[in-house]
Amino acid sequence: MLSRRLPEARAFLRQLLGRGSQQDRADAAPAASPPCRHFVKRLIGGDAASTSRAASALSAEAEAEADADAPSARVGTGGVDPVSLTVHFLRHSCGLAEADAAKAAERVLLRSTKNAHAVLALLRDTLGMSPATVARVVAAHPAVIRSSTIGAKIDFYLRELGLTAAEVRCFVLASSYRFLHAGLDGRLRPNYRILRDLLGSHENVLTAVKQSIELIYENLEVVVLPKLQALRDYGVSEDVLVKLVITHPKALVHRSSRFNEGLAAMKDFGVSPDSGMFPYAFGVFATIYQSKWDRRVENYLSLGWTEAQVKRAFIRHPYCMSVSDEKVRQLLRFLSEKLGWDPEYVASSPNILSFSYERRVLPRYKVLEILVSRGVLKNGIRMWHLRMSEKKFMENYVTRHQDVIPEVLLEAYRARTSCAVR
């Protein structure tokens, strides 16, 4: 009997709460008296508006699926539940998987999609992010879709600072949190003014920021300026400081302990603070963790070098310690086996260790080997053959001999185009 009366009961309750259809109201009209309505309110523990919101919450997901871009006037007034709207937007507009969307919705809540759509347009159209990249950014930092300042920040990076869209895109991917939370007038513009005063030109600021985006969003007064003063006290000139900030800004924004170790190392190596090599030697050392530095030294020692030779090579060409262990082994073994060069000779011109084996060392060796076999080169292959500019090498050893020895040009071409760049 209860099951037979259930439709009438439902119609009765809908009429009491003001949500019934015209037929419901006709069927339940006798029961729609104010006292009875008051009784039902007390019975269910709330008024009609509360019940309407509860019913809306149950149907919100279905409504959101039907209309992802619901007008903001309906949001928060019982039309669309913000949680369901957020999950739907994250899935269908941002491209997140269902599980990722649910997880992200715990950290951000939308009551309107208007601003969120504008943010996505900036990421896609202005910065050129692919749908997959947008999904990655939103999944990592869901708050980005609620940001009201992202447009002004992107405009600062592109127009005021002068970065390209690709560079800004890389920054957002590398540090979305910093991008979102660094204040435009509280941090970004003040940092730019500090850097402009220090480096003397917008071009220098742009060069430095491209080396380390941290310069524009870190607290420079706390992180960088004290280190610059320590370098001044150490005897570093302003010109050398500018060169250091432009070429190796990460040496100033990384851990203070490594900064102090860098100063001690420069003293040990005998690198003068006023020398032109100081910003490069200090910059390289301060940006390499001690464990990696020790591993690099051990790699040279395993190839027959002495600690004195390693030290001398670093002072002459600090970037020899930035070369991967594998590349160092490949180059030194080749130079030893094919050319007979010993560690002492290589350590005297260590910049050769930064040359590409595939794109420079091997192609030139093949050309020079032919010239040696034909008697054109009387004294063999020397270091300066590899060090000279590409233009000069082509003029002296390829173009000059291509009529008499055509295979020289052919070998050079094949070597430079058939090998991948490392």
Report on this structure.
By secondary structure, the protein is mainly α. The chain contains 28 helices and no strands. The chain has helices spanning about 1-15, 20-30, 35-45, 50-65, 80-90, 100-105, 115-125, 130-140, 150-160, 165-175, 175-180, 185-200, 200-210, 215, 220-225, 225-235, 240-245, 250-255, 255-270, 280-285, 290-300, 305-315, 325-340, 345-350, 355-375, 385, 390-400, 405-420. Mean pLDDT is about 80; it is low at about 1-75.
- What is the H/E order? HHHHHHHHHHHHHHHHHHHHHHHHHHHH
The number of helical segments is 28
What is the strand tally?
0
Rg, nearest Å: 35 Å
% residues in beta strands = under 5%
Helical residue percent band? 55-70%
Low-confidence stretches: 1-77
Overall mean pLDDT stands at 82
* Shape by Cα distribution: globular
End-to-end span in angstroms? 83 Å
Q: Tell me the major beta sheet.
A: none
Coarse structural class: mainly alpha
Pfam families: mTERF
Family: Belongs to the mTERF family.
Keywords: Transcription, Transcription regulation, Transcription termination, Transit peptide
InterPro entries: MTERF (IPR003690), MTERF_sf (IPR038538)
SSE order and pairing:
Layout (H helix, E strand, L loop, with lengths): L1 H15 L5 H7 L5 H11 L3 H19 L15 H11 L5 H8 L8 H13 L4 H10 L9 H12 L3 H10 L1 H6 L2 H16 L2 H10 L2 H4 L2 H4 L1 H10 L3 H10 L2 H4 L2 H14 L8 H9 L3 H13 L4 H10 L8 H15 L3 H6 L8 H17 L9 H5 L2 H9 L7 H13 L4
Keywords: Transcription, Transcription regulation, Transcription termination, Transit peptide
GO molecular function: nucleic acid binding
Pfam families: mTERF
